[in-house]
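G., before I forget:
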Amino acid sequence: DSGVTQTPKHLITATGQRVTLRCSPRSGDLSVYWYQQSLDQGLQFLIQYYNGEERAKGNILERFSAQQFPDLHSELNLSSLELGDSALYFCASSPQREFTDTQYFGPGTRLTVL
Amino acid sequence: DAKTTQPNSMESNEEEPVHLPCNHSTISGTDYIHWYRQLPSQGPEYVIHGLTSNVNNRMASLAIAEDRKSSTLILHRATLRDAAVYYCILKTSYDKVIFGPGTSLSVIP
């Protein structure tokens, strides 16, 4: 158990809808990262937040957004969903802001868009 | 852009050493080499990382070529619990991350 929790575990929704994925980092970790894992694209980094501020951006679509709250939990919002957004979404956390720090991954949220 | 390549799959006998290769011929001077593994139905798990020198920890060793264009993750004695997909990842201090395609390791009892 990495200490990172993600909810929900599974999510099934329809095209055009909007969903919110939630992540609670390990106690004391200030950075949260979001990743997408799909069969055709593999693992892709989406975005990093550090202590409430956006720190780094990867291949995140404009339809997706994230935020980190004062209690350090984070949410990833996916809107205007398409079939191709079906994937596993992982959250990871690390103690500091450096991207090269060891990251601790949560169990993931499996999103299915029908 | 930097890129990593890994074999799709490898097999090892239980209790034997495993050498998992990764090529990253376009690596930059500031790119760290990280290895994570993903067990079935779980999130990735940190294994080891390095910049230039070889590294050892309780899980594995990382051997980095002198020119840094390749690296090898070494599991000294494979166990059934080591069966996983192993990802070689380049991370820059400028916040870019390049994932390899991963090597699926099977361990034969």
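Chain A touches chain B at residues 2, 4, 42-45, 48, 55-56, 58, 90, 92, 98-100, 102-108 (CB under 8 Å). Residues 30 and 60 of chain A are 21 Å apart (CA to CA).

More on Monday.
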